[in-house]
Amino acid sequence: MLAGHAVPAAAQMASDPTVTLEAASDERRRGLDWSDGDPVLRGTVSVPVAQGLSLDGAATTLWGSNRHGDADAVIDLGATYMRQLGGWRLSAEGRYHLFPGASGANGDGWGYGEVGAIAGFSLGPASMDLAARYAPRQSAIGGDNLYLSASSAVGIPGTPLTLSGHVGHSSGDVRDAPRATRLRPDGGYWDHGVALDWYRGRWSAGLRYANSSIDGPASRHAGASLIARVGLTL
Q1: E strands within the chain?
Q2: DSSP 95
Q3: Exposure check for the chain: N or C terminus, fewer CB within 10 A?
């Protein structure tokens, strides 16, 4: 539920349907601002349908995102399959991203899909995840896109706080340069961030620092940012 960051293992292995409502001061993914610096509202749902398999969906307001054809929102739909092998969590996932309100009827021509694989390990209150996510060649993103990342999280003993961080790298082939700038505005680049989150019952809140290696004119909405959020899980 925290894009680009590890979440507590218990949340990842939930066996019941979960719904989360969240407000955040910005929507930033892989170091890139998707909401042009505006606050967002987000709703997510995860529904287990079989042992280890869940269907997932999320809707986030974008308020006319310049990065995504003036889209008013992004809807993420997909599925996740997870296996626990000893201390390891192995996951495979597929996602499709829709952009209602983008240029063209129903955002046609702006949606794109990606698949991913994640290997995670937990030791006491700490966890670490290595992930690869790949968007095959699609006209909507001007080529293909590969995102490799490593993330970690640790619960601070005796407190409701979790400290997490991540580093990631985006790369890919460019067939249509203007469209490729959606996900890679300056070619291949690194992003990184740290977050401090508070969990108490159904409530959560947090602060996240995000930054990227993108420089020059392309760094607009891709530089250092501090993001606040508050959420409620039903």
Answers
A1: 18-24, 28-29, 32-33, 40-50, 53-65, 71-85, 88-98, 112-123, 126-138, 143-155, 161-171, 189-200, 203-212, 225-233
A2: E
A3: C
Kindly list the structural domains of the chain, giving each domain's residue range(s) and its CATH number in brackets, ordered by start: 9-233 (2.40.160.40)
